[in-house]
Amino acid sequence: MWAVVTLCSLILVVVLLLCVPLDVVFDVEVYGRPKFRMRLTWLFGLVSKEVRRGRERPEEEARLIEAKRKRRERRITARTIFKILRTKGLLRRLKRLVKDVLSCVKVRELRANFRVGLDNPADTALAVGPIGVATVFLRSSCPHEIEVWPSFDGEAVFEGYSYGELRLWPIQVVIPFMRFGFSLATIRAVKILVSAKWKRKK
Questions:
Q1: Number of domains forming the structure of the chain
Q2: Domain around 97
């Protein structure tokens, strides 16, 4: 009896914790080498984590290079990746997962201002033109500041900044992830991945 009560209490606590919103604040700057900062805040500020990427000191950069090399050694092959992507129904399931998760995200603030240019001004017009049209329609339908400016200087350039504040209730994404994780397509993909890892260890 007490075991059932304890289990139900734990489930209730987990559900209540998942009902607490998760706030995400990100900041991206692309002026030369890109810089990225993201802060995750949960339980009304009691739990927070900040992630930064940008210019590193020499010893930190060497450590990151070594860590990337080790990750590449454990990385699955491109052949396995393509085999996984060709799994029947996986892309459809993945598309639905992304759509369901994005529908649960509340955008509290979003600002983006970028300048884009290619070596050939004609190519710049072809590339940035559709983006500019899409940006105009986007600005008319949402209150956020999004700007993409073309650069016709005849040199490749991509610079600017982006800032956003998002809020997500974890309880809302539990069902979409369970639906994706227990789908037949995902199980098949996991089976292919495990099989490839097992062969590499032999």
A1: 1
A2: 20-201
Residue bearing tokens 């260890």: 201
* pTM score: 0.68
Q: Using CA atoms, how far apart are residues 40 and 165, in angstroms rounded to an integer?
A: 10
The answer to whether residue 31 is domain-embedded is: yes
Q: How sure is the predictor about 122, in pLDDT bands with cuts at 50, 70 and 90?
A: confident
Distance in angstroms (rounded) separating the CA atoms of residues 143 and 132: 17
Q: Is there a domain that residue 72 lies in? A: yes
Residue 12 within a domain = no
Which residue blocks in the chain are alpha helix, DSSP H?
A: 2-18, 58-74, 78-85, 90-104, 121-141, 171-181, 184-201
Q: Record the tokens describing residue 105, joined without a space.
A: 């995200």
Which tens digits make up the pLDDT trace of 132-191?
Answer: 666 766 666 567 788 888 888 777 888 999 999 999 999 999 999 999 999 999 999 888
Residue 69 inside a domain? The answer is yes
Tell me the three state secondary structure of residue 40.
strand
